[in-house]
From TrEMBL:
The gene is arsB. This is Arsenical-resistance protein. It is found in: Cell membrane. Belongs to the arsenical resistance-3 (ACR3) (TC 2.A.59) family. PANTHER family: ARSENICAL-RESISTANCE PROTEIN 3 (PTHR43057:SF1), ARSENITE EFFLUX TRANSPORTER (PTHR43057). It holds the Pfam family SBF. It is a multi-pass membrane protein. Keywords: Cell membrane, Membrane, Transmembrane, Transmembrane helix, Transport.
């Protein structure tokens, strides 16, 4: 591992502090960044995420995708966790904490909105950052792509009815512009770019009569992009925390209260999925990404729906924002754990 990768947790911590400090000191700059969005998708963050995802897409061997169906257990695990476990445990934890444990600290209306925001996070499985977590755990890029694609297809038909059932609201409107733009930016475009790049490298290597066509050139390109991917991740953290600096500093107690059940949910879901993956005897390069997909959230979609249903300054919107702030550091800790326990799957 390089210097940046070895001390990634340190850089993440520094970027969180830097983001909050810069957001407080230069609110105008971050307001300008926040204004650069379309359909609740921030374009600056989208570029940085694209920078992280592109080299991972280059590694996808499209000729091998057809073999994914021969190993369906990883797909089954992802789908069961995402759609039969995660939304309901999130709703249960929200009710347990904000209607029970924290009931004396939060008024009933705000508590209801916090629970709603948590549910929206639970019903929206991740689309973009999963490729980053998969790459950091040396996951099977082909398998990860299929897992994400199937989840996105299910989300198109299942998100609205499942959300409506858990929220008790009948007029859930899916923000199609947010959903489709996110899938296009985070999956389709980098996938097409990666495919074109890979084909060109393979053709160039074939013309040079290499023993292993394209592999050396592909590895070299990914190696060159690695520093940019890490920088993209760190800048994303700075921007996310900078955009929410005012909220973090003005409502620290509420941030902590919301973060507690979200942390329990995230680590709990990962533990369930990881234990199941081990019992199912999945290889680590399939098990780790499968658990990451089931654990992380599609926060752009959750934030957009929270704002449309409850308003920009609602408790539901705040809960989804806290989900954004919690996710990156927590997922990096799970990446570390997955890498440390790789031998469990030998």
């Amino acid at each position: 591992m390089g210097f940046f990768e070895r001390y990634l947790s340190v850089w993440v911590g520094l970027c969180i502090v830097a983001g909050v400090g810069l957001g407080y000191a230069m609110p105008g700059a971050f307001e300008s960044i926040a204004a650069l969005e379309y359909a609740h998708v921030n374009l600056v963050v989208a570029v940085l995420v694209w920078l992280m995802i592109y080299p991972m897409m280059v590694q996808i061997d499209f000729g091998s995708i057809k073999d994914v169906g021969k190993k369906p257990k990883g797909l089954v695990l992802t789908l069961v966790v995402n759609w039969l476990i995660k939304p309901f445990t999130m709703a249960l934890l929200g009710w347990l904490f904000f209607k029970g444990i924290f009931a004396d600290w939060v008024d009933p209306q705000t508590a209801t909105e916090y629970i709603a925001g948590m549910i929206l996070l639970g019903v929206a499985p991740c689309t973009a950052m999963v490729f980053v977590w998969s790459h950091l755990t040396k996951g099977d890029a082909n398998y990860t792509l299929v897992q994400v694609s199937i989840n996105d297809l299910i989300m198109v038909v299942a998100f609205a009815p499942l959300t409506a059932m858990l929220l008790g609201v009948t007029d859930i409107t899916v923000p199609w512009d947010t959903l489709l733009l996110s899938v296009a930016l985070y999956v389709v475009l980098p996938l097409v770019a990666g495919y074109i790049t890979r084909r060109r490298l393979e053709n160039k290597s074939n013309s040079a009569q290499e023993t292993v066509p394209g592999n050396g050139a592909i590895d070299a390109l990914v190696s060159k992009f690695k520093p940019f991917s890490v920088i993209g991740l760190l800048l994303t953290i700075v921007i996310l925390f900078g955009l929410q600096a005012k909220t973090i500093l003005s409502q620290p107690q509420d941030i902590v209260l919301i973060a507690i059940p979200l942390l329990i949910q995230t680590y709990g879901i990962f533990a369930i999925a990881y234990f199941a993956a081990k019992r199912m005897k999945l290889p680590h390069n399939i098990a780790a990404p499968a658990c990451m997909i089931g654990t992380s959230n599609f926060f752009e979609l959750a934030v957009a729906v929270a704002i449309s249903l409850f308003g920009l300054h609602s408790g539901a919107a705040l809960a989804t924002v806290v989900g954004v702030l919690v996710e990156v550091p927590v997922m990096l800790s799970l990446v570390w754990f997955a890498n440390k326990t790789r031998h469990w799957f030998d």
